[in-house]
UniProtKB/TrEMBL annotation:
It is an enzyme of class 3 (hydrolase). It comes from the Bacteria. Keywords: Hydrolase. It comes from Exercitatus varius. Pathway: Carbohydrate degradation; pentose phosphate pathway; D-ribulose 5-phosphate from D-glucose 6-phosphate (oxidative stage): step 2/3. NCBIfam families: pgl. InterPro entries: 6-phosphogluconolactonase_DevB, 6PGL, Glc/Gal-6P_isomerase, NagB/RpiA_transferase-like. Its EC number is 3.1.1.31. Belongs to the glucosamine/galactosamine-6-phosphate isomerase family. 6-phosphogluconolactonase subfamily. Residues 9-222 form the Glucosamine/galactosamine-6-phosphate isomerase domain. Hydrolysis of 6-phosphogluconolactone to 6-phosphogluconate. It catalyses: 6-phospho-D-glucono-1,5-lactone + H2O = 6-phospho-D-gluconate + H(+). This is 6-phosphogluconolactonase. One of its GO terms (molecular function) is 6-phosphogluconolactonase activity.
Amino acid sequence: MNYLIFPTAQHAVEKIAREFVLYSQLNRPVHISLSGGSTPKLLFKTLASAPFNTKVRWKNLHFWWGDDRMVPPSDPESNYGEVQKLLFDHIRIPAENIHRIRGEEPAEQALKRFEAELSAVISDGVFDWIILGMGGDGHTASLFPHQTDFDDERLAIIAKHPESGQIRISKTAKLIERAKRITYLVTGLAKAEILKQIQTTPAEQLPYPAARIRATNGVTEWYLDKDAAKLLK
Ligand SMILES: O=C1O[C@H](COP(=O)(O)O)[C@@H](O)[C@H](O)[C@H]1O
């Protein structure tokens, strides 16, 4: 596994933020998929602050999400809503560069819209960069243990959180795996034990989607802080 271990979560997100600057200097639209939950909030706050808020050429970056919850953007559970509040409200980015999942719509309708936008904008399904998180149960995006079909050829699915029953829309494993680059950003002591299992057990023997989903023809890397990496050898 390709682990990059940083002294703190802030160091890890600053490295990602510097990559945003570089991607935005390419002379083309760059498609980046963001993760949700609590971990990437530090990244969004960092990107919204100096020097990144002005160094990134925002008009060159297009933003997507690995998953979102079926709630309106004003709900703190909305992955899009959090990025809007922490980042988009503080920078100048064209509205057409934001490709959100419409959590406020009925799930079937939002799924169709998301799939149509994916097919229209990224016809080969190859994202430049997909940033993912990992839940304490080993889920990534909204692909949960024991309910993920790793061979599903669709672009996106409707998923149900196994405990809360919350309805979500998620990219499929197959779509994620087509990316040129996948970066798992995982921080904090609470994720140390599961990372140890992922390091020491063959992925096929684990139920964790985060252990199994890797770029087929691209790079897969894990950005960890010291706490998350505490039990790694
Ligand atoms: O439910 C979700 O959880 C994972 C991990 O979230 P975290 O709070 O442990 O950082 C996240 O990657 C996913 O996008 C989100 O919807």
